[in-house]
Q: What sequence folds into this?
């Protein structure tokens, strides 16, 4: 091998790790520049801070626990700021769904009303949180704790109905798999109604994510909420809330990756 070829090979070997590092940094940066990517990272950090805070408090390091509680609250406030302009998206989804269904009803009556309730919960969620935030800052005369309670009800309601809607898609997929042979023998079946494996996977991730978030939402409700039917309301430790939140964040990250791959 000539001296020029040796030098060229050495340069390529030196450039390869730099190129891999640059590619990884580019992927991380591109994802953090998106709303969903940044919100996912902040969400994971704020639940991690809660777990660490509770761990330090349990070990008797109260001062360190308080510092991480402050970190948790600061990151939570940051998420409130990120959601400050989400109203238009929720309203758009509501009007898009009602307009499409007014033109042609594509879902059953039960699913129509369940979806409508889900969208109305998300439409109401944002103004409730804005009022609570403004009341907390004493900019308006509003009971911030009461409005945060209303916000939590909207959050829990939106999550619960989302779990039902997405879990239904997963069930339909497996029911279709069981009747696949009979369906393919029927010349009149509508292929557009067949649920793909990709759609089923995304819906299962969303259902798991929203279920974990729903458990978190209920944990912030007053003890004995709904006549004690949900016994963990106001009764579980902060580290347990943090673990539920981290599980939801993992599902959120997985859903984000799956969407990016398509």
A:
């Amino acid at each position: 091998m000539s001296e020029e070829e040796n030098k060229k090979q050495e340069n390529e070997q030196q450039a390869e790790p730099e190129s891999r590092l640059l590619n990884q940094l580019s992927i991380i940066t591109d994802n953090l520049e998106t709303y969903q990517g940044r919100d996912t990272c902040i969400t994971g950090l704020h639940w991690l801070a809660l777990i660490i805070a509770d761990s330090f408090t349990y070990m008797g390091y109260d001062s360190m626990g308080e510092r991480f509680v402050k970190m948790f609250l600061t990151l939570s406030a940051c998420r409130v700021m990120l959601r400050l302009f989400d109203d238009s998206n929720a309203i758009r989804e509501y009007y898009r769904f009602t307009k499409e269904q007014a033109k042609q009803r594509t879902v059953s009556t039960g699913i129509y009303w369940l979806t409508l309730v889900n969208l109305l919960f998300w439409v109401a969620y944002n103004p409730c949180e804005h009022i609570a935030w403004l009341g907390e800052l004493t900019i308006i005369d509003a009971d911030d704790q009461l409005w945060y309670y209303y916000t939590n009800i909207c959050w829990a309601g939106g999550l619960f109905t989302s779990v039902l809607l997405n879990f239904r898609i997963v069930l339909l997929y497996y029911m279709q798999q069981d009747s696949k042979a009979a369906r393919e023998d029927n010349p009149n079946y509508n292929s557009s109604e067949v649920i793909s494996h990709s759609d089923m996977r995304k819906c299962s991730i969303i259902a798991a994510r929203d279920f974990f978030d729903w458990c978190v939402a209920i944990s912030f409700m007053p003890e004995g909420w709904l006549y004690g039917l949900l016994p963990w309301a106001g009764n579980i430790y902060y580290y347990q809330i943090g673990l539920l939140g981290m599980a939801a964040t993992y599902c959120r990250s997985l859903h984000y990756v799956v969407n990016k791959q398509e």
In short: Residues 212 and 257 are 19 Å apart (CA to CA).
